[in-house]
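Internal tracking record. Fields below are filled automatically when a chain is submitted to the structure queue. Please do not edit lines marked as system-generated. If the sequence contains nonstandard residues, flag them in the REMARKS field before resubmitting.
Queue: standard
Priority: normal
Entity type: single polypeptide chain
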Amino acid sequence: MKLSISALILPLFFALAGIGECIEGPHLSLPDSVFDFGYVQQGATVSHTFQLCSTGSDTLRIIRIRPG
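SYSTEM-GENERATED OUTPUT FOLLOWS
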């Protein structure tokens, strides 16, 4: 019987992904990752501050932020 590589790698990937949650280290938590501005008049300036929380056991370094 012939097994594809993905049939062997995918279960290993998911098993290792579960282990990652047990490892200590830096971890970023965003209590609110989405903000709805609702109706905004064209040309109006709006802003919102997102709170970032370091919830890991090691120093969290934010190196780059990419808005999206």
